[in-house]
Write a structure and sequence with these properties.
The complex is a heterodimer of chains A (563) and B (172). In chain A, the strands form three sheets. A ten-stranded mixed sheet of chain A has the order 14-13-12-11-7-10-9-8-17-18. The N terminus of chain A is likely disordered. By secondary structure, chain A is an alpha/beta fold. Chain A is built from 18 helices and 18 strands. Chain A starts with a helix and ends with a strand. Chain A folds into two domains: 164 residues, NAD(P)-binding Rossmann-like Domain (Rossmann fold), CATH 3.40.50.720; 264 residues, Dihydrodipicolinate Reductase, domain 2 (2-Layer Sandwich), CATH 3.30.360.10. By secondary structure, chain B is mainly α. Chain B has one domain. The model of chain B has no long low-confidence stretch (mean pLDDT 88). The chains are: A alpha/beta (563), B mainly alpha (172). Chains A and B meet through helix 1, helix 2, helix 3 and helix 16 of A and helix 1, helix 2, helix 3, helix 4 and helix 5 of B.
Amino acid sequence: MSDEIRKDDEMDNEQNTPDAVEPDDTAPEAGEPPLSEPPPTTGGDHPSPWGMNRRDVVKALATVPFVGALGYEAFRKSNIQDEKRDAIANEVQIQLESPAFSEEAISRSSQTIRIGIIGNGGEGESLVRSLGFAHPDWIQARREAMAEDPRDRYLQEWLAQQDLNVEITAVCDVFDVRAERAIAASTQPLRPGDDTRTLKPAKRYRHYEELLASPDVDAVIIATPDHWHAPITIAAAKAGKHVYCEKCMTRTFDEVFPMSDAVREAGIVFQLGHQNRQLESHDKAREVVAKGILGSLTLVETTTNRNDPWGAWVWDIHPDGNPRTIDWEMFQGAAANKVPFSLERFFRWRCWYDYGTGLSGDLLSHEFDAVNQILGLGIPHSATASGGIYFFKDGRDVPDVFQAVFEYPYRDLTVVYSATLANGNYRGQKYMGHDATMEVGSSLKVTPDGSSTRYADMLEAGTVSPRRPMVTYQSGYKGLDAVTTATQEYFASRGLMFTYRGGRRISTYYLHLKEWLAAIRDGTPVSCDIEQGVQEAVTCHMATQSFLQGRRVTWDPVLKQIV
Amino acid sequence: MSKVPYDPLSSPYTKLQVVALVALRFGIGWHFFYEGLTKITNPYWTSAGYLSASQGFASEWFEWLVSDPGRLAMVDGLNKWGLLVLGLLLMLGLFTRTATVLAIVLLALYYIAAPPWVGFEYSIPQEGAYVIVNKNLVELFALFVTLLFPTGRLIGLDRLVWWMRANGENRR
């Protein structure tokens, strides 16, 4: 009897005698055979090496060839993707691997740096906390937030920071409540790292000059409104105190060079508070530009879109704020224009030119500094700005819609800044070159241009496409990924406040402060020094002057004047 | 013709029924296997995005899963290796019933993590249009069918397993 015929016979047999077998849906299934039953008594004319009928072995292994065939196809597909990735990697010659990161512990025997905080408002308190000194209310609030949402990791991340070996020894704030909050934070016992010291409370000073004269202060954080940045920094430099100053570096152009001269002459360590200098993605962006991956870069577009009162500086007015708790004269001391006591002006100072420069000094300064880090542009040749108060007609005198165009003819490049405080559409920061476009945020994405000369062959071959990024760098992840998914795209557009080191999320404030402290102790460089600060301040003030004067302004690098 | 003694290796189905049922089992197995393989070979892959965007009654639990790096690594590992191993077992027809049940559990988790119910919007784009029923659910139903109409012992390594166990028992 041939195999074939016998098979058919058996199949017929199976079909015709279903009652002969226990139905499979009720039968004990695979893995649990009915062991009480006898072993199969199938024909023994073709025994397999195991003693099993060959036909049974064929049935047992019938799907294996299919697994092999599909496995081979999967292997081929993966090879094609690898080839594409290798082709891109070869072309761009870039290693986007995250640098290995191991934080060196700061020894307790290192110099303890005694910090004075001048201006303990929202930003000041963030900075003090980033140093390891949180107000008890913040810790409580974070604990509650964590209980409510397990994804809230602020407290753990803060506690995972290093002990920076600093003390908050002094505070100067014109508002009693904020001064008291700094004092409370200075002795708060829950701190990052192994810091279990019992510390003396910070001493409050009514005037910054008194604080600067104190022998208990090595360095100061200046987080006052902008109009106080220059006078306090100059005084601190004269007193030999190191300075971490918030942006915008000065309120006016006239203050820029006296301030930078004072810092340089005193030889103090100065760090400007652009914490996004610490973004890992910015390092990668610099690498992309340096390797010429974008081709001739002619246009950079950078933007701010916010759409809530808080984002437009309509900040809370503290219920305890009044002429008895706020030293109004001290507050407006450096302002050009003196007005009677105003809670709005005190708590929402960014809305008035007397204390700041609105979008220019607050948000253009961050955006310009990001572009300046990546491209090393320096002060532009010219600036043209326009805008108006179009939405927040609440008595402010700074615009809430603001556009500025900066020309760099010697770099064949224009930088456009575009902002509105009444729309939240995310536009990001784009670097537009002949060969590719780079979008930078907390992540980075390079997409080839359809008419690129450099990538023409790869575009032709379909290795790269203008419809998908050829290089993406995602904070928190490692490596080069040329094949992005919708999920990756989605996360690429998220992320603020933090960067990643070795895959770990870390506060950029903390890193920026740590860099400043290392510079004080060991003389290592800071990333946003006074020279970078001058470039930031002059650029912002060119935009402000252009807006206020309604004309294009240019920079005279010889006379160091805006003309 | 004498009555055939009880033979768990013989089939209650027609040839074509066997082909259809094995094709279904194998197809789902391959889908699982390749989903697992791509996740294992992609160093950036994590379930964090999918799970943290979770909606519905179990969303808090899924968010809890991703909120801790150690927990997330475990979830990721179980998921990708689970897909690979279950896929392989389904394709080969080995321990088919257990593999099918676990695969159904996995699909149910995917489904309840992001149920396509009215009122839920997901920011991660989907490749089709769904309400209530999505492909995860259909695949789950299909596995349910293969659970009730098993084929592992007809076409699959379970045939071998059963035979060896039965013979082993017999020798004793």
